[in-house]
Amino acid sequence: MPMMNDIEKSDKEVYSIILRENKRVEEGAEMIPSENFVSRAVLQAYATNFTNKYSEGLPGKRYYGGNEHVDEVETLAIERCKKLFGCEHVNVQPYSGSPANLAVYFALMNPGDTVMGMDLSCGGHLTHGSPVSFSGKWFRSTSYMVNKETDLLDYNEVRRAAKKEKPKLLISGHSAYPRKVDFKAFQEIADEVGAYHLADIAHIAGMCATGVHPSAIPYADVVSTTTHKTLRGPRGAIVMCKTEDRLKALYDPNGKKNLAQKIDSAVFPGLQGGPHNHVTAAKAVAFGEALQPSFKEYCRQIVKNAKALADTLMDKGLTLTTGGTENHLMLIKLNVLGLTGKGKEVQTALEAANITTNKNSIPYEPGSPFNPSGIRLGTPAVTTRGFKESEMKELGEGIAKVIHNHQDAQVIAAVKKDVIELCRQFPLYPNLTVLK
Ligand SMILES: Cc1ncc(COP(=O)(O)O)c(C=O)c1O
User: Fold this and answer.
1) Nearest to 308 by CA among 331, 332, 324
2) Which string of DSSP letters, residue by residue, matches 113-178?
3) Which of 186, 207, 222, 373 could form a disulfide with 241 if both were Cys (CB 3.0 to 4.6 A apart)?
4) What does the pLDDT look like over 73-109, one tens digit per residue?
5) Helices (H) and strands (E) in the chain — how many of each?
6) Are residues 194 and 259 in the same domain?
7) Average pLDDT in the 288-294 region?
C-alpha cells in the first residue's frame, strides 16, 4: 500500500491508529457475520483519484463534465453485477445498505403505507420496520415472527400475518437468521396480498450470487444488498430489480416510470447526491473477483466452516437458535445457560480473548434489546483469511471455554494466546507496508 508511506510522514497520529487497527485484525478472530476482509485490489481501488470526482446522474447522463472514465467504471460495475446475479437492472450507487433500503421505500411507498418485515428480535434488520428507524417512524410497520418452538421461519405464519396486515411492501432477507430462506414462498405470499417483495440479501449475497444459497433474483421485485458482507467488496450497497413494475396498475395507474426507473430516480435525485466513485471502482473490482470460480469455492467454505463451528459449539454444551446453521451465521442462546440478558458481558469476555462477536437478541428475547441473551457469530471473515474446518473446531472450543468461564481471567488469557497463534498462521495482508 504505497500511499500508507505518505500518511506515516504527514500524519503520525492517524498513522499510529491505523497500525493499531491492523494489529487488532491480524491478531484477532473476526466472527461478526456482517464483516469481511476485502482483497488488496479492492483496498487499492478505494484509494484512487475517483474519490475526487462529482458525477451526479447515471453513465452517459451526468450533470457535470469530465466523467468519461467514471462512466466506464460504473458501466463495468453494472455489467459485472448483472452477470454475477443474473439481474435485469441494477443501481450500483447506494452508499450503504440502510440508504439502499430507504431508496426502495422511497421508490415504492408513500409515508404511512404498510411495510412488513421480520421482527427485529427474530433476526430482521432495523430498516425493515423497526420503530427506531425511518422505516418504523414514517411507515406503518408490521412484522412476522419465527416459530417460538423451533426458531424457524413458518411461511404459513408469514402468510397469515400478511393477509391480516395487507402490506404494500413485504421484506424477506434478514440479519440474524441462520437458515435458508425460501424466496419463492415469500414471492407467492406477496402475490397473494398485492405487495411488492423486497429481498434484502445483504448477509447472504455472496452465497446467492454463487448458487450456494438459492437466489432471490428470479422471484423478488427488488433485491437490495450491501457489498461488504459475504460479497467481500467495499462498504456500499446495490439495488437490483426487475424492469417492469408488476403492481403498477394497482398502485401507480398513471405513472410513466417502470420499476427500474423508479429505483434509479429514488437513489438520485431522490436521496443521494454524487456517487462515491472510488467505491464504485472498488465494487467493479469485487464483482470481478466474485465472478471467478475461486469465489464460489470461498462461499462453499464459509458454509462448511459455519457448520463445523456450530457442531463444535453444540458438542461443548451450547445451544443455538434453530439447532444449527445452514448459512454463514449462528446465534448462541445464553439464556439456556442461565445467562439471560448477559450478551454484553459474554461479548466483552470473548473480545478479551481476541474473538470479536456481537451481542444479539434471540427470538422472543427474554432479556432486553440493550441487554440481550444471544451472541451472533459468523464465518465469512475468518474463511477469507484461510481458516478451514479444523481451525473452526479449535476456535469453537476456545469460544465455548470463554463462554462457560466468562468471569475467569486465566481461562480468557489462555484462549487469547491460542487465538493469536492461530491467527498468525493466517496473515491477512502479509505484505502491507504499515505492518513492518
Ligand atoms: C439485512 C441487512 N440489511 C441492511 C443492512 C444495513 O447495511 P448498512 O450497515 O451498510 O447500512 C444490514 C446491516 O448489517 C443488514 O444486515
Assistant:
1) 324
2) -EEEEE-GGGT--GGGT-TTSHHHHSSEEEEE---TTT----HHHHHHHHHHH--SEEEE--SS--
3) 222
4) 999 999 999 999 999 999 999 999 999 999 999 999 9
5) 17, 14
6) yes
7) 98
User: Are residues 190 and 316 located together in one domain of the fold?
Assistant: no
Domain that holds residue 317: 301-435
Distance 124 CA to ligand 1 centre (A): 10
CATH assignment of the domain containing 189: 3.40.640.10
Alpha carbon 387 to chain centroid, angstroms:
20
**Same domain membership, residue 144 and residue 232:** yes
Q: Catalytic annotation on 54?
A: yes
Amino acid at site 244:
E
Report yes or no on 9 lying in a domain: no
Question: Which residues lie closer than 8 Å to 353 by C-beta, 6 or more apart?
Answer: 398, 402, 412, 413, 415, 416, 419
15: annotated active-site residue: no
Pick the catalytic residue from 184, 235, 300, 304.
235
Instruction: Choose the catalytic residue: 179, 229, 307, 359.
Output: 229
pLDDT in tens, 40-86: 999 999 999 999 999 999 999 999 999 999 999 999 999 999 999 99
Shared domain for 311 and 283, answered yes or no, is no
**pTM beyond cutoff 0.85:** yes
pLDDT for the residue 2: 47
Structural domains in the chain (count):
2
**Closest C-alpha residue for ligand 1 atom 7:** 97
Which of the listed residues 264, 290, 316 is the one where a domain comes to its end? 290
Q: Are residues 242 and 373 in the same domain?
A: no
CA nearest neighbour of 223 among 203, 244, 205, 241: 241
Cβ-contact 306, 299 below 8 angstroms? no
Which grid coordinates belong to 16?
A: 499510529
Q: What is the DSSP letter of 236?
A: -
The three three-digit cell numbers of residue 105, written as one number: 421505500
Kindly provide the residue ranges of all beta strands, DSSP E only, lying in 242-378, ordered along the sequence.
329-333, 355-356, 358-360, 374-378
Per-residue pLDDT tens digits for 110-144: 999 999 999 999 999 999 999 999 999 999 999 99
Residue 109 lies in a domain: yes
Query: Is 196 inside any structural domain?
Result: yes
In contact, 312 and 393? CB cutoff 8 Å? yes
CB 167 within 8 A of CB 108: no
Instruction: State the amino acid at position 356 in one-letter form.
Output: T
The C-alpha atoms of residue 222 and residue 200 are separated, in whole angstroms, by 8
Do 349 and 330 belong to one domain?
yes
Residues 261 and 367 in one domain: no
